[in-house]
Amino acid sequence: MLELTDGTRERIRDLQDLANKAEDGDEDARKELRVALRESAPVVIARCSNTARIYRGILARTASGGNPLVEEAIKERAARMAGEIAGEHPTPLEALLSDRIASLWVLVELQEALNAAWYRRTDDGKRVSPDYMLKMVKLQESTHRRYLAAIRELARVRKLQANTPGVQYNTQINVRS
């Protein structure tokens, strides 16, 4: 993942200031924000619109149980994972799929942890209902399928980009008796 330059950070701060004013109801600030975004570098726009990073932060906060070290470590691991999966010079599609894979990884891990926690008895000695557990397991399975589908898609995209057609070997053996 690329480190942001000081200029990029400053531009993002300026845009955030405009966004705060627009959020407070300043219509002129909203118009100015639109113009400023149009004039911004692609890296600034990409950083400001990186919902995968925001999404992973929300999941990390939930998974950490309030432990700042765990929260930050999950976010950093997911960001590094996305970068490693994307590779050195990813295409825009590879970058999107890599972010998706890393985000779904965090979600799969969170749901695994929550499912494990639900197997424990609650503070009042009761267990969660089997119906509830079944719904949660189905949700986790759905997330896991989406995770694997994103991995398959990235592999398919890379195969198509490599322009390597599928190889098929046909062998015929004639045996005389």
Overview of the molecule:
- This protein has 2 domains: 1-49; 68-161, no CATH class.
- The chain has 177 residues and is mainly alpha-helical.
- The protein contains 7 helices and no strands.
What's the topology here?
Layout: H1 6-23, H2 27-38, H3 42-48, H4 51-64, H5 68-86, H6 92-119, H7 130-161
Shape: flat
Structural class by SSE content = mainly alpha
For the sheet with most strands, the description reads: none
The share of residues in extended strands comes to under 5%
On the 0-100 scale, what is the average pLDDT?
87
Number of domains: 2
Distance between the termini: 65 Å
Helix segment count? 7
The percent range for helix content is over 70%
Q: Any descriptors?
A:
177 residues; mainly alpha; 2 domains; 0% strand
Summarize the structure.
With 177 residues, the chain is an all-alpha fold. It has helices at residues 6-23, 27-38, 42-48, 51-64, 68-86, 92-119, 130-161.
